[in-house]
Design a protein that fits this description.
286 residues; alpha+beta; Ribosomal Protein S5, domain 2; Alpha-Beta Plaits; 2 domains; four-stranded antiparallel β-sheet; 35% helix; globular
Length: 286
């Protein structure tokens, strides 16, 4: 078996994007890279994963101990952890892919997606990690195309957020009126993202399920949303479960928007980094 074939790159992702709760995700140009290399069996972590243990690593868990004798796992990631950018989904997809490569099995993206969503408990980040681009999980993963005029701006605060903790804040019931409003926002969001319609995006990113509760965990959230919109964003919301904030806007304005959001968070005592990663149309690469 050739060692050069025992490697995989998996993109980050932003999910929900507002009313696309737990079913919509978008792949971004930040990557986790993993390989099985010659070594003593001790896993090596670098980048944003430096310092974690094998017990904390979703990649090692998804790999399931399938490491041939004389090899070790090496992982390098540029995906921020606990910022709502799909770091856990990327790790799990990487582990599932490496397990197949190590066993000489065919790479089946659909099978890897289904395994990853089972491990994650939801498909919104697993979809773009596997297929790339904008992915709607509606019974099956459906790849859409983000309108070419649109770009993504992010502000990533130092303050982290656990997806597990964020899920405990979700309401257990919604009224009929809230359910209807959320359904209309979800439909508007999909149309807006694919048509490049800022008015539909603005309406569709106004989530009424998770964000009103989760935003309370992000110091300076409301100020950052206002700053992003004033800088030209169609709207701003939490990236995934947070703590990162994501804005959708015209591509030529994303840098100013990211700077504005990060500055507003910092002014509220929550120092943040602005980034504007490109959207990637490819999922994992072997």
């Amino acid at each position: 078996m050739e060692l050069r074939n025992l490697r995989v790159r998996v993109p980050a992702s932003t999910s929900n994007l507002g009313a696309g709760f737990d079913c919509l995700g978008l792949a971004l140009d930040l990557w986790l890279e993993a390989c099985l290399a010659e070594g003593d069996g001790t896993t090596v972590y670098g980048g944003t994963l430096e310092g974690i243990t094998s017990e904390e690593d979703f990649l090692a868990s998804a790999l399931g101990g399938v490491v041939p004798s004389g090899l070790r796992l090496e992982v390098q990631s540029s995906i921020p952890v606990s910022r709502g950018l799909g770091s856990s989904a990327a790790a799990r997809v990487a582990g599932l892919v490496l397990a197949r490569l190590a066993q000489g099995l065919r790479i089946d993206r659909d099978a890897i997606f289904h395994s990853a969503q089972m491990l994650e408990g939801h498909p919104d980040n697993a979809g773009p990690a596997v297929y790339g681009g904008l992915v709607l999980s509606a019974g099956r993963p459906t790849k859409l195309r983000l309108h070419e005029s649109l770009g993504i701006a992010l502000a990533l605060p130092n303050q982290q957020m656990s997806t597990r903790a964020a899920r405990t804040m979700l309401p257990t019931q919604m009224s009929r009126e809230e359910t209807i409003a959320q359904a209309s926002r979800s439909a508007a969001l999909l149309l807006g993202l694919t048509l490049g319609d800022g008015e539909l995006i603005r309406y569709g990113m106004d989530d009424r399920i998770a964000v009103p509760h989760r935003k309370l965990l992000v110091t300076g959230y409301d100020a950052a949303v206002r700053a992003g919109i004033e800088a030209g964003a169609f709207h701003v919301t939490l990236s995934g479960a947070g703590s990162g904030l994501v804005a959708v806007a015209a591509r030529d304005s994303t840098s100013d928007i990211a700077q504005a959001m990060a500055g507003a968070l910092g002014s509220e005592g929550n120092a943040a980094v602005p980034i504007t990663p490109a959207v990637v149309e490819d999922g994992f690469v072997t």
